[in-house]
Design a protein that fits this description.
alpha/beta, eight-stranded parallel beta barrel, eight-stranded antiparallel beta sheet, 16 helices, binds (2R,3S,4R,5S)-2-(hydroxymethyl)piperidine-3,4,5-triol
Length: about 550
Amino acid sequence: MKLSPAGLAACVAASVILTLPAQVTPRPLPRIVKKDGRFALFVDDAPYLMLGAQVHNSSTWPAMLPKVWPAMEYLNVNTVEAPIYWEQLEPRPGQFDYTVLDTLLTEARQHRLRLVLLWFGTWKNGSQHYMPEWMKLAPDRYPHMVDKNGHAVDSPSPYAAASLEADKAAFSAFMRHLKAADPQRTVIMVQVENEPGTWGSVRDYSPEAQKLFEAPVPPEVLAAMQVKPSTPAPNWQEAFGPEAEVNFHAWSVAKYVGQVAAAGKAVYPLPLYANAALRDPLKPGAPGSYESGGPTDNVLPIWKVAAPALDVLAPDIYQNDPAAYLKVLELYHRDDNPLFVPETGNPANARFFFTALGLQAIGFSPFGMDYTPTRSTADPAHPREEFLTPWAMNYRLIGPMQREIARLNFEGKLQAVADVKGKLTETLPFGTWNAQVSYGAARNNRTVGNPEPTGRVLVAQLKDNQFLVTGFSVRVDFRPAGTEQQRKSQHIVEGTGQTPSALIDGKWQHRQFMRVEEGIYENGVFKFLRIWNGDETDWGLNFGTEPVVLRVSLATY
Ligand code: DGJ
């Protein structure tokens, strides 16, 4: 394309505007808000739902980005999680190279995507592989941990003062640059370290660590873990017995990560989080059988007191057993912690995005979602589209109404669940109505379950008698539930006929569809397409594998 001089001048002016962020009016800072016991991530001053995907570990390099964006487009994400490498950012002590970060920012904006940046600093999957070369070559100054036998472990020491100072300085430099370069708030959250902790040794056995291990446990740790000591000022062994070493290591790692987080937050107060390599939530095994020191479910209170600059402790969920997956979601959805799933794998688990939503998750993100040659270890065999499609289906459905869903969830009006083999039906209570969910139901046939448990459903109450309903491979209907008073006095008997009904205080109430509107969301607004009636409603509201959104108005007769 040939440009006229005026066109050229306009382009130059546009690119100047793009590269001069100082001229952009700063948008409100992203932040985590808690109200009435529920959390939301606020972006641009309103609840935001991260429909995320994380790239492979070596995909932030500018030459790889062309293989990232098409995958993100296919997935319909609104947020990309991408690492920032300490070894690249600080090639020489105190000299910082922001080119990779800047390219990422520019290209994310061009694709109208937000970012969550992952600080691959002192810890990456328990090791120190992303420390710059000049640190790796000076192990005396930036030491490894020492195991029981006195051997160096492939994991950094959490007591290395020089490493901590170097990490704090580098992380602060990164956050300072972000503050200056990102008034648009393209970056909405930052992960501090990656799966911090240690494989191969439950704790550090260096003389310094040993001394601390034998010293009294800080009182705030005892309080957080609800330990009432029988002796005054117990040491770790006395206070925690078999869990002493893992708790001690969690305290040591969390203290370090907490200081890095605090240093960065002092510069630029974005929401920060740390992610965990999990222990089995159902059969945890002894300390040492899982990564020690990270924010695993057993030590979350320790992490909360040791690292208050972290807003969220988040599980990387690679569990394939559905019961274990659901247990993890439950364990990280706490009164002091918003649920956020920064990594997950296995397309069969895609449906649990809905379960996470049902627990007011602020975000969800499958791992390894780009077209670089590396395949996710979680799923090496799947052809690309097959690997991406189950996740993409979620985001194609929820994407157009993401802000509405985030708002309804923050207001406590939304419930969402997913299919688990063997559980054919479930009931979602909404005051005077119960939403009845069934999997594998066809017309007037019995509910038999889906051939594979792929069902997922979301129901949100818009008004007393109006609901937003959507999902895949599921049937939803509504049954009168009576008032709170009637429910308390238990004068309710559920009918078994085709139309959901209930005998409430001696009077039958039958569900009546007043209006079932199918529509699509455009810019957050529901646009009417048609009314469902006849065959479309006679057997309940049936959702297949196409994205369908219904607005359902109910009455009784
Ligand atoms: C969890 C880590 O946090 C990721 O960076 C990645 O290494 C995956 N495991 C496995 O591919």
